[in-house]
# Entry
Amino acid sequence: MNPLHMLFPAHCPYCGRVISYTQPACESCCRLYPPNSVNMKFRHSECIAPFPYNGQFRKAMLNFKFYGKPQYSKQLSMNMAALIKDKYSDKGFCYVTCVPITKKAFNKRGYNQAELLAKQISSITHIQYKPLILKTKNNKTQHTLCPSQRKENVKGVYEINSKYKSKIQGRTILLIDDIATTGYTLSECVEVLLTSGAKAVFCATYAIAKRYNPQ
Ligand SMILES: [Zn+2]
# Structure
């Protein structure tokens, strides 16, 4: 066993039990909460997720995102990677990337939860990770706004990372975020990639909220 794993054991993201590094959750939570497939369609793309955004899945995500548990990324990404391999097996992804956060937000939280998930998914699926998109403007946090405000709030806040501009042309890209609620954030990032010449973009998140229809 890796000695680091003894010092820093993995925990079940739902109940907190110590688990093996190779499991997405403890055995009883795996039985209680089997992954299924939730999806959301939006303009020019779609999103898949192993879980709905409610109950224990929401709690795990809040712990991961707001309560300083970046180590959950390994567990949370396992079911995502399995679903990606299953549902997107024919896509021929060239890169996996993530919805970015601003430098200011990064400095405050210390990590970008979507980036951690994307990197874990990269290591499981062997799709190369690249930070293709940057968030250059601060906007209001999406979950503080009503659905109609959310669409406007994400307009023009993302741009292509100029370092990778020439690498996007004609490529099919996998875009990762933690959760999808309205789909506006993902949709905006998809547009940025397509405008820069990407052939197609498909999205995956850990959970999808089923309350809104982004169309
Ligand atoms: Zn558990």
